[in-house]
Design a protein that fits this description.
single chain, 38% helix, Enolase-like, domain 1
C-alpha cells in the first residue's frame, strides 16, 4: 500500500520533507528548502531502497558543527514511518 508521510525537520536548512513508501520500499522523497542538489541526489540514491537500509546508512550523519544533517533528519522521518 502506497503511503506518503510529511516530516518537519529540526536543526537543518530544509523546512519540510515528504516521503512516499510502498510496502517498506522508498518510492520518492521531496524536500522544501535546504541544498537542492544534495537533497535531489539523496532522494535519487535511496529511491527503491528498503526503509530500514536507508535509515542505517543515513542515521547519525552530521553537517559541519551541527548535531544533525538533512540525511540524519530524513532517517528520523523514515523511523516515524515504521
Amino acid at each position: 500500500m502506497v503511503k506518503t508521510y510529511q516530516y518537519k525537520p529540526q536543526g537543518v536548512c530544509a523546512r519540510q520533507m515528504e516521503v512516499t513508501i510502498d510496502d517498506g520500499v522508498i518510492q520518492d522523497v521531496k524536500a522544501i528548502g535546504g541544498c537542492s542538489g544534495n537533497l535531489q541526489g539523496i532522494s535519487s540514491l535511496i529511491r527503491g531502497m528498503k526503509v530500514e537500509e536507508a535509515i542505517g546508512r543515513m542515521e547519525g550523519i552530521r553537517c559541519g558543527a551541527k548535531a544533525t544533517s538533512c540525511p540524519d533528519q530524513l532517517a528520523k522521518a523514515l523511523k516515524q514511518t515504521l
